[in-house]
Known about the structure:
heterodimer; A: five-stranded antiparallel beta sheet; B: four-stranded antiparallel beta sheet
Amino acid sequence: VNLTAAAGALPTDGDARRAGCAGPSAEGPDDNGDDAAVEQRWNEAALAQPVERAAWRLWTYREAAIVLGRSQRASLGTLAAVSPLPVHTRSAGGGAVLVGPWLIGLSAALPTAHPLAQGGPVASYRWLGEALVHALNDAGVTAAQALAPDAVRGVPAEPALAWACFGGLSPWEAVVDGRKITGLAQVRRRTGVLLVAGVLLEVPPWWQLCAALGRPAHEARLLGARTTAASEHARGDATAALRQALPVRLGAALLTD
Amino acid sequence: MTDVVLDPAAWQDVDAGTEALLDKWLVAPGTRVHAGQPLATVVLVKSTLEVAAPADGTLAAIHVEAGQTFGRGQVLARLEPAG
């Protein structure tokens, strides 16, 4: 199995010291194009043993799939069992994510003693959220900004969308003109800290997520109204630009600390 | 008895009214545990965190069941100290 091809991962995986190192192995059975399965396996492998050095990886997805937050496995698991899309549960918290060609994913594993792992979950979100915003800015999404906890507090929540990652805002997630464009989550164990993120490249087919999870159609419209994507703001090929910018910004963040 | 709580560092910069979710207990009451051993997983601000045993001992009682939410500093369980 060609892991890079099977994972749909970009050729820019790396660790803080040497570009090209992909971190833990994600090798497994044939995934039939389900790149989200490979991603979740990589994430699990990352914390299965103590993390010795920072490693990160970007993910692209050839096909649509749903990734549930850890605490959703009971409440949505039954619906997910009859979903027409592959459904996975991540170790991290948060709401359901519809992955597909419209999204770029990121995993970053840090040793517990790493400076960027100190200070609790919100502090860890900060450096990653800001690195993602720098990359978005580089890619031409100049109005993207990561929201500090105080700013998030001022954004009215939409309770009906509490089940969806992109339906709500948490500290240091990024918005453009008030509409969410990045989502963050993490896992903290004795073995290390795993941060995960998603950046919307194109507008997702929110109806597909709602239909698969038995949510009413109007919630897809709500999701559309509360989110945006890089392609709506950048001139030219935002996806290509982000693919170039993300490794630079992530590498810089990990190297400088 | 020793209180089992979520590491206060986890609550840093978290809004005062925010609650965490007790996701899963990893050990049952009556189980002997050692200091630092993960006893439970919780979810706070989209982060899955481990609750570690503060000392060697026996998990005597669970005060927050899986599926329940809890606030900053709330006692999740109590340990009977070893020895």
